[in-house]
Specification:
It contains 13 helices and five strands. It has 254 residues and is α/β, with parallel strands linked by helices. The protein has two domains: 127 residues, 3-Layer(aba) Sandwich (Rossmann fold), CATH 3.40.50; 117 residues, Winged helix-like DNA-binding domain superfamily/Winged helix DNA-binding domain (Arc Repressor Mutant, subunit A, Orthogonal Bundle). It has a five-stranded parallel β-sheet with strand order 2-1-3-4-5, sandwiched between helices. Helix 6 packs across helix 13, helix 7 crosses helix 8 and helix 7 crosses helix 13. The protein is elongated. The two termini are 31 Å apart. About 7% of the residues have low confidence.
């Protein structure tokens, strides 16, 4: 029996894990935790084979905590969960000894692959890095498509909102439900990434939209996204732009 836990503040991710594990034999989803402290106590008292650790922990450094798990629990395999891969994150993971990073868009097939391959490799103490490479390719393609749409819409890299829009769109691609919690979850997540505040993120996005609405590129968004809101000359809001681009990207990539 393979036992694993999830450490993530993302309730939707927890429910997704429950769903995909429903039909998996010999796999036991023991528990989920919102914080590292509770999970650490659990690992000290129960048998755990795998820990799926979300990089977006609100009150903890997930990388440092994953290093602590690897150092103190030799029998536990750590799988990082992140929709935003970068060379820095991958390099840190490799240095710690973690070779697998998955996205929140987890599927039953991915879990089966991880458990079957990783369990065998765990016995031989030799982890496989294929999942990281797959994640990088998808991430790079998504980055390119989002950047291209922003540029065509008249949102320039010189504008601070450009980077914020890219981050917000990536989050929404893998977690569409966050659009119902924009001010409480989406903007704070973007703010944490750039070490700023949610209110500043919101203002920067609004300013980027104001500037883009004056450009010819923004007026052609209906051609890029099939957006009737622009065609009817109604000003597109930041949240509408994020939702429309995220929807287009998810249909093309995922």
């Amino acid at each position: 029996m393979i036992n694993f836990i999830l450490i993530s503040p993302n309730e939707m991710l927890k429910n997704k894990f429950k769903l995909v594990c429903k039909n998996l034999e010999n796999v036991n989803f023991l528990n989920s935790f919102f914080d590292d402290k509770s999970a650490y106590v659990w690992m000290q008292n129960f048998d755990v084979d795998f820990v799926f650790l979300d990089l977006f922990l609100f009150d903890a450094d997930a990388i440092s905590f994953s290093e602590k798990i690897v150092r103190e629990f030799s029998g536990i395999n750590v799988i990082l969960v992140s929709d935003f891969l970068s060379k820095e994150i991958i390099e840190c993971a490799k240095q710690i000894g973690i070779k697998n990073i998955i996205t929140t868009n987890i599927s039953e097939n991915i879990l089966c692959e991880i458990f079957s391959i990783q369990h065998d490799k765990f016995i031989n103490n030799n982890l496989n890095a294929n999942n990281v490479q797959i994640g990088c390719n998808t991430f790079k393609l998504m980055e390119e498509k989002i950047a291209l749409i922003c540029l065509k819409a008249g949102i320039s890299p010189r504008n601070l909102g450009y980077s914020y829009f890219k981050e917000a769109i990536k989050i929404t691609v893998y977690n569409p439900d966050v659009m119902g919690k924009i001010t409480k979850e989406l903007y704070p997540m973007v703010a944490k990434k750039f070490d700023t505040t949610a209110s500043r993120v919101e203002r920067a996005l609004r300013h980027a939209i104001d500037v883009a609405s004056l450009s010819d590129g923004f007026k052609k968004l209906d051609e890029i996204l099939g957006c009737s809101l622009v065609a009817s000359n109604r000003r597109l809001t930041s949240s509408e732009f994020i939702a429309l681009v995220a929807d287009k990207i998810s249909l093309e990539i995922l």
